[in-house]
Automatic annotation (TrEMBL):
Single GO MF descriptor: catalytic activity
Domain Amidase: 180-581
Pfam families xref list: Amidase
Species this chain originates from: Lactuca saligna
InterPro entries: Amidase, Amidase_dom, AS_sf
Name assigned to this protein: Amidase domain-containing protein
Length: 609
C-alpha cells in the first residue's frame, strides 16, 4: 500500500506494486467503528448529527475513525483523477463459434430473437431439468405455454395479482412492491392475450411479467426512490429507455418494487414501505438496495426484474435471495429515465431466475442511446452450449476471497474446484491491492453524487421526510469536500490500472458475492430503519470494482449455508465482456442447479390448473 506520512498514506507508484500471490501488500480488513443503531437511539444520533457545531465534530470523528481521511482524503498518490469509467473498446477477440455479434440498429424484439437463437435446444434443457427437485419457470416456459394455449397472459396476470395481494397482506407482510395497479396489469395482459390469439406475439417476452425497481421510470407509476418525497418534486412523465424496450417486446410491466430508500443502504430495510423479506426466510433481509426486485424473482412472481446497481445493489440482493444478478459494463444500457442518484457508479442491472433469462432481457434492453452510438461497442451475445466452452482463467486474490463467513468461503471454494474438475478451468492466484481503499473511495463518490443530485430538494422538504437511517447517510455524504472527491477519483484511476494488469493474466476475477448471508430483521427497525455499518461493509465487500471501475459482473447461486440461506459466487469481467461473463455464469449454474432449493415463500404462477 505505502507508508504513513502526516495524516495520510503515501501510495507507491503503480509499477512498483507487486500483484503476485507472494506480494507484501497488506490486506486491510474493514475497520468499521460504528455501533448498530435503530429506534430511539437512531433518532437521538440524528438530532445530534444535524446540529451545526456538534454535527461537524461527530462527522469529523466518523470520517477519521473509519479511515476515510487517512486512506483517501489526505492520501498522497501520483495518479490524476478519472471521473467516468467509460472504457475504450476494440473488436472482440472471442471466437466466432462462441458468440454472435449483432448489427447496430436492431429493435429490442429483434435482439431478443437473436438471444433465443443463442440458447441450447429446448429439448435438451427440458431433459436436463426434469429430475431436479426445484425448477424455476423461465421466459421460454411462459412463451411456450402461451403459444400452446395451455394458459393465457390474462390468466397469469390474475394469478399474479392474487399472489401480490396475499404477500402484501398483514399475515405475510413481504413488502415486495411499493406500487402496482391491478387494472393496468390486466390491461396489458388482455392486449397480450389477444396478440397470441391472432398469432401475432411480438417476441418470447410477450405476456411475461417483469417488475421494475422504484428507481426507474415506468408509467403509470410515480418514481419514489423508496422515499416519501422524491416523486413529489420529480414527476415520472414517460418510461425509462430500458422499460420502453421491454414494453416494445410485449412484456407485462407489473409494478414498482421496494428498495432501500434512495439506494443509501445494503439491507433493503425501508421505514416507509416496509422491508422486503427474504423468501428463503421471511425473518431475514433480502438485501439492498434492489431488495424487492430480488425477492419477487426469488418468490416466483416474475422470472425477471430490473434493478439499479450503484454499489452491488443488484448483485448483493441476488446473492442473498439465490437468484442471478447481472450488472453490465458502464454505458451498455442507457441510463435515461433512471433517478440520477449516482451518475458514474450506477447502472441498470438484471435479476433473473436463470442465466438464460438474464441473457434474453440483457439483449432486450442493451444498446446505446442515439447520442452514445460512437462510444459503445456492438452487442455480442454468447451461444450457451456447455460442449462449446473455452478454457477460462480465473484470478483469485486469496485474502480478499477468504474475508467472509466460513460457510461462504467453503461453498465458493467448492464451486471453483468443480469448475476445474469438469471444465479444466484454471484459478490463478494474484494480489488485488487496496480493496478497502477502493471501498472508501467509492463511498465518497456515490455519497457525493447522491447529495449533489438531490441537494436543492433536500434544502426544502426532503431531509425532514427522509428515514432516520438515510438522514445519517445524507449528513455523512454532505460532509465530503472537493479534496475527498478528487482523491477518490485518483484512486479510481489507480485501481483501473491495477485491474488492467490483472486482466492481462486472467479472463475474470472471482470472489464470493457477499461476506455474510442474510441476517435477521430486528423488531426496532420498522419506524427508523437501521444503521448497521459492520454488516453493510461485509455485504458490499466484493461489489465495488463493478461499480467504481464500470466493469461487468455477475453473481450465480452456488449453495446454501447451515441455515439454508443462499450463497452466491461472483465473476468480474473485462470491459464489454458480458458475452463471456454470461457463458461463465451459465457453466457455473449448470453445475449447481440440481441442488437448488425451493424458497419458503414461492408462487407457482405458471403451474397447470
Amino acid at each position: 500500500m505505502g507508508i504513513l506520512k502526516d495524516n495520510g498514506v503515501v501510495y507507491e507508484p503503480i509499477n512498483e506494486v507487486d500483484l503476485s500471490p507472494n506480494s507484501d501488500q497488506l490486506y486491510l480488513h474493514s475497520d468499521v467503528k460504528a455501533p448498530r443503531m435503530a429506534g430511539f437511539l437512531a433518532k437521538v444520533f440524528v438530532w445530534f448529527l444535524e446540529m451545526k457545531i456538534i454535527g461537524k465534530i461527530l462527522l469529523y470523528f466518523l470520517k477519521k475513525n473509519n479511515r476515510i481521511q487517512k486512506l483517501v482524503s489526505y492520501a498522497v498518490l501520483e495518479e490524476s483523477p478519472l471521473y467516468v469509467p467509460l472504457h475504450p473498446y476494440e473488436e472482440s477477440e472471442e471466437q466466432e463459434e462462441e458468440i454472435e455479434c449483432l448489427n447496430r440498429g436492431l429493435s429490442a424484439s429483434e435482439q431478443v430473437q437473436h438471444a433465443v437463437a443463442c440458447l441450447q435446444s429446448s429439448d435438451s434443457t427440458i431433459l436436463e431439468d426434469s429430475n431436479f427437485s426445484f425448477r424455476r419457470w423461465t421466459i421460454l416456459d411462459y412463451s411456450r405455454a402461451y403459444t400452446s394455449r395451455q394458459i393465457t397472459p390474462l390468466m397469469v396476470a390474475e394469478r399474479l395479482i392474487s399472489a401480490i395481494m396475499q404477500s402484501s397482506g398483514p399475515e405475510m407482510d413481504m413488502s415486495f412492491f411499493i406500487s402496482y395497479d391491478a387494472h393496468d396489469i390486466l390491461r396489458q395482459a388482455t392486449e397480450s392475450t389477444l396478440r397470441y390469439q391472432r398469432g401475432e406475439a411480438i417476441s418470447v417476452l410477450d405476456g411475461v411479467p417483469i417488475a421494475v425497481k422504484d428507481e426507474i421510470d415506468c408509467m403509470p407509476y410515480p418514481t419514489t426512490g423508496g422515499s416519501k418525497w422524491l416523486h413529489k418534486v420529480r414527476a415520472c412523465k414517460e418510461d425509462a429507455c430500458c422499460v420502453k424496450r421491454l414494453r416494445a417486446c410485449g412484456a407485462i410491466l407489473v409494478g414498482k418494487t421496494n428498495m432501500h430508500e434512495l439506494g443509501a443502504g445494503t439491507s433493503g430495510i425501508n421505514p416507509h414501505y416496509g422491508t422486503s423479506r427474504n423468501p428463503y426466510d421471511p425473518k431475514r433481509i433480502s438485501g439492498g438496495s434492489s431488495s424487492g426486485s430480488a425477492a419477487v424473482v426469488c418468490a416466483g412472481l416474475c422470472p425477471v426484474a430490473l434493478g439499479v446497481d450503484g454499489g452491488g445493489s443488484v448483485r448483493m440482493p441476488a446473492a442473498l435471495c439465490g437468484v442471478i444478478g447481472l450488472k453490465p459494463s458502464f454505458g451498455r444500457i442507457p441510463h435515461t429515465g433512471v433517478l440520477p442518484l449516482n451518475w458514474t457508479v450506477g447502472m441498470v442491472g438484471i435479476l433473473a431466475g436463470t442465466v438464460e433469462d438474464s441473457l434474453i432481457v440483457y439483449a432486450a434492453i442493451s444498446g446505446p442511446a442515439e447520442s452514445d452510438k460512437p462510444k459503445i461497442p456492438r452487442l455480442n451475445l454468447p451461444k450457451l452450449n456447455l460442449s462449446n466452452m473455452s478454457n477460462i482463467r480465473m484470478a483469485k486474490s486469496n485474502e480478499w476471497f477468504n474475508d467472509c463467513s466460513d460457510d461462504i468461503r467453503a461453498c465458493c471454494s467448492r464451486a471453483l474446484a468443480n469448475l476445474h474438475k469438469l471444465y479444466g478451468w484454471e484459478t490463478i492466484e494474484v494480489t488485488l491491492p487496496d480493496i478497502e481503499v477502493m471501498r472508501l473511495a467509492h463511498y465518497v463518490t456515490i455519497g457525493s453524487e447522491c447529495t449533489t443530485s438531490i441537494a436543492h430538494h433536500l434544502e426544502k422538504t426532503g431531509r425532514s421526510e427522509s428515514g432516520w437511517d438515510v438522514r445519517v447517510a445524507l449528513s455523512i455524504y454532505a460532509s465530503f469536500n472537493s479534496r475527498d472527491y478528487l482523491n477518490a477519483q485518483r484512486i479510481r484511476n489507480r485501481q483501473m490500472k491495477f485491474h488492467e494488469k490483472i486482466f492481462s493474466m486472467a479472463d475474470v476475477i472471482v470472489s464470493p458475492m457477499v461476506g455474510v448471508t442474510a441476517y435477521e430483521i430486528k423488531d426496532d427497525v420498522q419506524d427508523t430503519g437501521e444503521l448497521d455499518y459492520v454488516n453493510g461493509a461485509a455485504l458490499v465487500r466484493y461489489s465495488i470494482a463493478g461499480n467504481f471501475l464500470g466493469l461487468p459482473a455477475v453473481t450465480v447461486p452456488v449453495g446454501y449455508d447451515r441455515l439454508g440461506l443462499p450463497i452466491g459466487i461472483q465473476f468480474i469481467g473485462k470491459p464489454w465482456s458480458e458475452a463471456k461473463l454470461i457463458q461463465i455464469a451459465y457453466a457455473m449454474e449448470a453445475l449447481c442447479k440440481a441442488e437448488y432449493k425451493k424458497p419458503h415463500v414461492f408462487y407457482d404462477i405458471l403451474a397447470p390448473s
